[in-house]
């Protein structure tokens, strides 16, 4: 009997599953994700699933990890302090394609250098400016390096990376190592995000490996990539950007394995996000433009997934403008009030009781903060330092922590860096109040709901008459926003063109009236024409109402709450390498390689050399990832144009894919 262990580290829960011989789920378990030390939650989930199955740690032949940590970090704007070295571009280019936004105020250096589209040096590399920059910028957790036409010649990127490593020892991400495609600014954004995630993902994987050893599991560890394929833990530590959408991609693989559906929308609701993807003809669609998450378009190959900041732990915002009022959810995740009360009940209840006794509602009612221990705080400003000193290791009401308006911005920056967690009212709390969930402190959720219900709308009336009414409003809003995310995805994937953006179509008055079956002079009907597979621990609570709203079938598979963990162990190791051949002059064909361009007089010779190099790299990477029984697929995309009756070679892109099953340790 061969046992495989799948683990998924989500924003709220860490799931574990044991699968026998790639066919049967024999045990599942959940544990709370522990942000201060993720290994604690990982270890708790693994021990629980081993105990449930009654198997020994030595029986595990393969361990695989999927995680929403990178996705959540980008959606919530979290990560380490990074620096970008931008070679051969202009200062104005930093404002294009979201680079300034991706940097989030972190430093950038624009220096001369770079190459032309032929791979020739465009300008000398200014290493003097680089050295001065490194001296004046300390506390950087990771560097991103992006050079002009670096995919045609990476020499300057590699030179800068060596200089940074020698001077700082910090990890360096070169853009050409993440993608072989052109588009320097987009590669730069991808490199910045990779650098921002390196410390976070490295800590997770390192501690997960330590935990496996402590428990007694001596098996290779894999990590799920954003396209659903597996990679080795070592590869994931070097290229954490490839784990964005790891958890959602694993859920798609798991959903297909659990249900066998050929065509469906798969919607996975977690604590932080709702991730929606299309399965068509039994396969998830791959996004040709690269993964988009947290508002950034990357050059990472991933499942075509639309990720929304909507989950069971989404922050509840009260709408006070207008006469009706109401609530809106997300996109930021907060720690549920019922959960922080379960951990620090005396402090939380004392503050809630005092707020309930007050004659007026406060801006920070039912909101608390705590330090996330173990997350480094290098490079923070003086206001942030004051807040951290005031907070210490305690749980504090925000009304006690924040004393000036300017400190609100400092707190936001600490939350963005993952140094502090804020607690507030969430749909999870609403579920506790309505009796749908009984995991944490329902009494605290009740008190927080009552505080929010007392808030006033634009007409001066209470937001809700009591806690139960407000809790129902929150769950109804979760249903409505979930339906909108599914409609938006369906409109985006629809073959027909409706001449409006998907987000507008999903909220259009005709769509809303059609969902309600409007009957007047017009008969309007709108429905999803394929089923929705609902995944996630809370899907069974929320998705029947979503299906009714969208007038479609809803599939809630057994073990759907751990679909991510299942997908982590039923996938394949797949590595791709790509490169290009260009024609800088008539009769000359240039192969662009890592160690520099090579020219040939025949295009077939050039493509054959490139294919040989890429085949070796892909197969070596697949074996390093622990694959066996490797299959190689080669694709040549040759672009030619007709000139005076003959086809003239312009460019060719060669892609090699190496794929195999992960090697399972012998019993």
TrEMBL record:
Domain Hydantoinase A/oxoprolinase per the UniProt entry, residue ranges: 187-574
GO cellular component: cytosol
InterPro entries: ATPase_NBD, Hydant_A_N, Hydantoinase_A, Oxoprolinase-like
Domain of life: Bacteria
Residues annotated as domain Hydantoinase/oxoprolinase N-terminal: 5-166
GO terms classed as biological process: glutathione metabolic process
GO MF term (any one): 5-oxoprolinase (ATP-hydrolyzing) activity
Protein name: Hydantoinase/oxoprolinase family protein
């Amino acid at each position: 009997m061969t046992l495989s262990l799948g683990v998924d580290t989500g924003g709220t829960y860490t799931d574990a599953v044991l699968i026998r011989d790639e066919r049967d789920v024999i045990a599942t378990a959940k544990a709370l994700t522990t942000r201060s030390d993720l290994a604690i939650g990982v270890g708790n989930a693994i021990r629980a699933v081993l105990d449930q199955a009654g198997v020994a740690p030595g029986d595990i032949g393969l361990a695989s990890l999927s995680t929403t940590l990178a996705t959540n970090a980008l959606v919530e704007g979290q990560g380490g302090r990074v620096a970008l070295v931008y070679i051969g571009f202009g200062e104005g280019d930093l404002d294009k394609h979201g680079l300034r936004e991706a940097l989030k105020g972190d430093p950038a250096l624009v220096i001369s250098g770079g190459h032309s589209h032929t791979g020739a040096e465009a300008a000398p590399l200014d290493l003097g400016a680089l050295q001065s920059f490194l001296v004046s910028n300390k506390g950087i957790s990771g560097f991103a390096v992006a050079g002009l036409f670096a995919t045609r010649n990476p020499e300057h990127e590699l030179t800068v990376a060596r200089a940074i490593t020698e001077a700082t020892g910090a990890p360096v991400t070169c853009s050409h190592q993440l993608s072989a495609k052109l588009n320097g600014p987009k590669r730069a954004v991808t490199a910045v995000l990779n650098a921002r995630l390196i410390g976070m993902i490295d800590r997770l994987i390192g501690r997960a490996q330590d935990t496996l050893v402590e428990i007694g599991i001596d098996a290779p560890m894999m990590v799920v990539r954003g396209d659903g394929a597996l990679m080795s833990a070592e590869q994931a530590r070097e290229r954490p950007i490839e784990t964005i959408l790891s958890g959602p991609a694993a859920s798609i693989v798991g959903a297909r394995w659990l249900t066998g559906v050929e065509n469906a929308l798969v919607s996975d609701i977690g604590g932080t996000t709702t991730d929606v993807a299309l399965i068509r003809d039994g396969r998830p669609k791959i996004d040709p433009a690269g993964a988009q998450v947290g508002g950034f378009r990357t050059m990472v190959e991933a499942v075509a997934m639309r990720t929304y900041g909507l989950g069971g732990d989404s922050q509840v915002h009260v709408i006070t403008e207008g006469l009706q009022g109401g609530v809106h959810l997300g996109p930021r995740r907060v720690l549920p009030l019922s959960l922080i009360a379960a951990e620090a009940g005396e402090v939380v209840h004392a503050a809630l009781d005092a707020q309930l006794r007050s004659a007026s509602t406060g801006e920070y009612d039912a909101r608390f903060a705590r330090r996330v221990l173990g997350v480094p705080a290098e490079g923070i400003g003086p206001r942030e330092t004051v807040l951290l000193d005031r907070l210490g290791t305690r749980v504090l009401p925000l009304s006690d922590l924040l004393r000036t308006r300017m400190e609100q911005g400092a707190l936001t920056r600490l939350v963005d860096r993952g140094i502090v967690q804020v607690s507030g009212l969430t749909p999870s709390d609403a579920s506790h109040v309505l009796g749908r969930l009984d995991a944490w402190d329902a009494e605290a959720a009740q008190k927080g709901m009552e505080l929010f219900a007392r808030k006033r709308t634009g007409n001066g009336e209470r937001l809700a008459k009591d806690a139960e009414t407000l809790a129902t409003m929150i769950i109804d809003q979760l249903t409505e926003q979930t339906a909108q995310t599914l409609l938006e995805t369906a409109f985006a994937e629809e073959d027909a063109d409706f001449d409006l953006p998907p987000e507008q179509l999903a909220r259009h008055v005709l769509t809303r009236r059609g969902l309600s079956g409007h009957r007047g002079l017009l008969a309007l009907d709108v429905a999803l024409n394929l089923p929705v597979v609902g995944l996630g621990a809370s899907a069974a609570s929320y998705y029947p109402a979503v299906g009714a709203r969208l007038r479609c079938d809803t599939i809630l598979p057994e073990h759907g709450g751990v679909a991510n963990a299942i997908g982590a162990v039923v996938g394949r190791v797949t590595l791709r390498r790509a490169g290009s051949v260009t024609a800088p002059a008539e009769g000359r064909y240039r192969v662009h390689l890592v160690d520099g361009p090579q020219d040939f007089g025949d295009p077939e010779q050039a493509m054959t050399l490139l294919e040989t190099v890429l085949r070796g790299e892909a197969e070596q990477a697949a074996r390093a990832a622990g694959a066996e029984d490797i299959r190689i697929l080669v694709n040549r995309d040759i672009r030619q144009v007709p000139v005076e009756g003959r086809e003239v070679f312009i460019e060719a892109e060669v892609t090699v894919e190496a794929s195999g099953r992960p090697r399972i340790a012998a019993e």
